[in-house]
Write a structure and sequence with these properties.
single chain; alpha/beta; binds magnesium ion; about 15% strand
């Protein structure tokens, strides 16, 4: 009877949304979004896990997680095959972080001869061992092994984009990577949306970049591509200095400047993302 109840509960639980924040271009807003979207979802009492898969460890620093607090890093999860949940460091009731350390940079080289090396994270993340409504994975600015590990486990991708000159350079490669991952290792992978970050409404280029992306997405509607149902999120994250300052205090924007434009934008983005919860 007890077993039946456990099974019944498992089948009625909403699926865990595992979202990779991915763009191989550097400095576009991946980490800022992982940190503050994660914090916004946690504010709405969603159970959130953030995974730092970047050797720069900016996400880890953003929450003031220092080396003495790190028992198991994401490097050890991948290289030593430790369960992901052993890495969790709590920040409040609803937020946990799997932190990264600089030795993660060695993983690309060290794991080069391991069979199934792009599936290491997926194997170590046993979702029967921990529960979460959302997992957000902060990818490094590259298309290497760490990013592949994120895409192999995720069921969604969000692409932060900064609408400036050269913003679209590299986008073809980014989409091609999602296409290949979906075809070869992760059939459920889909791009849920493109997020404009460091947004400046007045800039002429913003409109041009948005139009180009919109055209590309429209052309693929109804096709079986990971981006066929992708949206450009209605929420744009405006350029806001408070978002750049918050990490040096080890705080999310909601702790550091709860009344800032940055806090407002990430809060509205979280609403928009939670509205998608009912989609399969
Ligand atoms: N909306 C914003 N307003 C102002 N500054 C921002 C905003 N978003 C991000 N930044 C700042 O821009 C810089 C790059 O952002 P972030 O670190 O989030 O990008 P990233 O894509 O994770 O970079 P990397 O590819 O190096 O990991 C950081 O200094 C961050 O504080
Ligand atoms: Mg980053």
């Amino acid at each position: 009877m007890a077993r039946f109840l456990v099974l019944a509960v498992q089948f009625t639980l909403p699926p865990m949304r595992i979202i990779a924040l991915f763009n191989q271009k550097g400095g576009v807003g991946k980490t800022t979004t992982t940190a503050n979207l994660g914090a916004a979802l946690a504010e709405s009492r969603r159970n959130v896990v953030l995974v730092d898969l970047d050797p720069q460890a900016n996400l880890t620093t953003h929450f003031g997680v220092d080396p003495p607090e790190i028992a198991v890093s994401t490097y050890r999860v991948l290289a030593d095959g430790l369960p992901l949940e052993e890495a969790f460091v709590a920040r409040g009731e609803y937020l946990r972080i799997a932190p990264s350390t600089t030795d993660l940079a060695a993983a690309e080289v060290e794991l080069v001869s391991v069979v199934g090396r792009e599936l290491l994270l997926r194997r170590m993340a046993d979702v029967r061992k921990f529960s979460a409504d959302y997992v957000l994975i902060d990818c490094p600015p590259s298309l290497g092994l760490l990013t592949l590990n994120a895409l192999a486990w995720a069921n969604e991708v969000i692409i932060p984009l900064q609408a400036h000159f050269l913003a679209l350079q590299g986008m073809a490669k980014l989409f091609e990577t999602c296409h290949l991952v979906r075809k070869q290792i992760n059939p459920r992978l889909r791009i849920s949306g493109i997020l404009l970050c460091q947004y400046e409404q007045q800039a002429r280029l913003t409109g041009e970049v948005t139009d180009e992306v919109e055209k590309f997405l429209e052309a693929s509607r109804g096709k079986n591509e990971p981006w066929s149902e992708a949206v450009i999120f209605e929420t744009h994250v405006r350029r806001n200095i408070k978002l750049a300052e918050a990490p040096s205090f080890g705080q999310s924007i909601f702790q550091y400047a709860p009344h800032s434009a940055g806090a407002a934008d990430y809060s509205v983005l979280a609403e928009e993302i939670m509205k998608m919860e009912k989609k399969p």
